[in-house]
Write a structure and sequence with these properties.
This protein is an alpha/beta fold. It has 14 helices and 13 strands. The chain is globular. Helix content is 42%, strand content 17%. It has helices spanning 15-26, 44-51, 64-71, 83-86, 89-105, 140-155, 170-173, 202-215, 233-244, 255-259, 266-278, 280-285, 289-295, 302-309; strands at residues 5-9, 32-38, 55-58, 76-79, 110-115, 159-163, 166-167, 179-180, 186-189, 196-200, 223-225, 229-232, 248-251. The longest helix has 17 residues, at 89-105. Helix 3 (64-71) packs across helix 5 (89-105), helix 5 (89-105) packs parallel to helix 6 and helix 9 runs parallel beside helix 14. The model has no long low-confidence stretch (mean pLDDT 98). The strands form three sheets. The protein has a seven-stranded parallel β-sheet with strand order 3-2-1-4-5-6-11, sandwiched between helices. Bound molecules: NADP nicotinamide-adenine-dinucleotide phosphate. The site of NADP nicotinamide-adenine-dinucleotide phosphate has 27 residues, from helix 1, helix 2, helix 4 and strand 7. NADP nicotinamide-adenine-dinucleotide phosphate binds next to helix 1, helix 2, helix 4 and strand 7.
């Protein structure tokens, strides 16, 4: 074990980072060992990673000294920020800047930054098709990540920019699944028109990340994107209908209707779906399924994800 290179994983007890820790530790012949960063090493989730053979260390992205300890001696770092924990793009930007600074100082050889597009390159603030949010963003949780890419390149950190996709797990944990409409029929509500939404099993993000670290040098300085399948709302509703054994209809609403739903982040997500709809060719082209499968041969499509997970989707 001592000769294995360390990959420090932020968000290790969560969706993206957890998948990477499991991918590393499940591969007995891996050249890597995961160092899982958590704010609470005593949690059940952290203990489960330790049981897989990962090193578990205390750390908080807001605490530079803890990041320095977590990155020191690591070959690679998987960096992710936690927008939905605080919903502050400024905090996300500050966290990314801190990660880049510490990665440079600790001489990390390969940083994999979980980012997303800065949508303002497609929809400048002057474009009124969608409202400007927080005074300077169109899709805050995308823009903050994309805007932060430069911290890594400016600092000269050997970085791969990883553009992720909508987790199908949002149907279970994020309230994005089918819900009964006024007549009781299940509706999958998304303002995507007839355009395709790149989606992925959250667990596959970490498996793809593992593929990036394994292939290593060829991806340094590159921006890549991953998805398990690109599907229209109607195609997702048809898949859900088959998996759940009850009809699910695609409910295509206008983005302004979605933004008005009023739950925290509805405006951000309404703008996000509109961006994915209006710039669909660019957004899908940046997330090749074939490429994703080359990183992770076990990549799941939606039907495979559903067959393992449909029973967990709350339908109320
Ligand atoms: N949902 C989607 O479809 C989707 C798609 C693409 C990108 N994203 C992005 O994914 C990011 C979140 O990643 P995720 O879904 O993997 O997260 P997650 O499942 O919510 O887990 C995040 C983990 O990070 C840890 N954490 C939270 N705050 C922390 C902090 N201040 N310092 C250190 N660790 C902290 C927590 O672990 P401990 O409690 O153990 O510390 C938690 O288990 C967001 O920025 C979101 O925008 C989401």
């Amino acid at each position: 074990m001592a000769d294995k290179k360390i990959i420090t994983v932020l968000g290790a007890t969560g969706a993206q980072g957890g998948g990477l820790v499991r991918a590393i530790q499940h591969d007995a012949s891996s050249p890597f060992r995961a160092r899982a960063v958590t704010r609470n090493p005593a949690s059940d989730a952290a203990k489960a990673l330790h049981a897989l053979g990962a090193e578990v260390v205390a750390g908080d992205v807001d605490d530079e000294a803890s990041l320095t300890r977590a990155f020191t001696g690591a070959h690679g770092v998987f960096g992710v920020t936690f927008f939905w924990a605080h919903m502050s793009p400024e905090r996300e930007i500050a966290d990314a800047a801190r990660m880049a600074k510490v990665a440079k100082a600790t001489k990390v050889a390969h940083f994999l930054w979980s980012t997303l597009e800065d949508t303002r390159k497609w929809v400048p603030l002057s474009d009124n098709r969608m409202p400007t949010l927080g005074g300077k963003y169109k899709v805050p949780h995308f823009d903050a990540k994309g805007e932060s890419n430069h911290f890594f390149t400016d600092a000269g950190v050997p970085t791969t920019m990883l553009n992720t996709s909508f987790y199908w797990d949002n149907f279970i944990y994020f309230g994005a699944g089918p819900k009964p409409g006024p007549d009781g029929k299940l509706l999958l509500t998304m303002p995507m028109g007839d355009k395709k939404l790149p989606g992925i099993a959250a667990e596959d993000i970490g498996k793809c990340a593992y593929g990036v670290f394994t292939r290593g040098a060829e991806f340094i300085g590159k921006s890549i994107g991953i998805a398990g399948e690109h599907l229209t709302g109607a195609e997702m509703a048809a898949g859900l209908t088959r998996a759940l054994g009850k009809p699910v209809l695609y409910n295509d609403v206008a983005p302004e209707v979605y933004r008005s739903f009023g739950f925290p982040g509805a405006d951000d997500l309404g703008n996000m779906f509109q961006f994915k709809r209006d710039f669909n060719a660019d957004f899908c082209a940046a997330r090749s399924i074939e490429f994703s499968r080359s990183l992770n041969p076990a990549l799941q499509n939606f039907a495979q994800w559903l067959s393992a997970n449909a029973a967990k989707i709350p339908l109320e």
